[in-house]
Specification:
- By secondary structure, the chain is of the alpha/beta class.
- It is built from eight helices and seven strands.
- Strands 4-3-2-1-5-6-7 form a seven-stranded mixed β-sheet.
- The longest helix has 13 residues.
- It is globular, with a radius of gyration of 19 Å.
- About 30% of the residues are buried.
Length: about 200
Amino acid sequence: MALEKIRQVKAKAVYVPGNDIDTDRIIPARFMVCVTFEGLGKYAFYDERKNADGTDKKHPLTDPRKQNAKILLSGENFGCGSSREHAPQSLWHYGFRAIVAESFAEIFFGNSTTLGIPCVCASRGDIAKIGEIIEEDPEAEVDVNLESMTVSCKGFSAPCSMPENARAALVSGTWDPISELMDAEKLVSETAEKIPCFKSK
């Protein structure tokens, strides 16, 4: 199964400011009792978005103007804390397809990119500027381009960065090692047959 080549994500965005937004804020631990990751999207940032009675708090993700945003903007050290894979899974199932932040926790970054979610770094000032643009015009699309390594919105463009190995995997469609292994099942079997202890009897 060929994977999508992710070279660009262009969509509405939402700015959730703050540094050290950890995985417990992204997906509270009490929602991690699940067999699959399906359905986790409704719990993304749950305690940030919801009161105890389930009504909405004032939050960027509950702003009606920001609904259906697919790009998330945030601050420094995004995704820190525990290494739970549920955090990027909840964001993917919520609908996010790219994240722009000042920096990322390493394990969160790896878990996200192997889901096909580009995580690019930009400066605090540039992220704030894009945040201002989409606050004034919530319909404005943000363009995360992995070929030019820029983040753009309504005539404003800023450089962004990410490790080259992750960028290359996304743009070439080789970002999920499990899918690659499954695609190579025949080759794996042929190789196993050449190993004496694995040969079919």
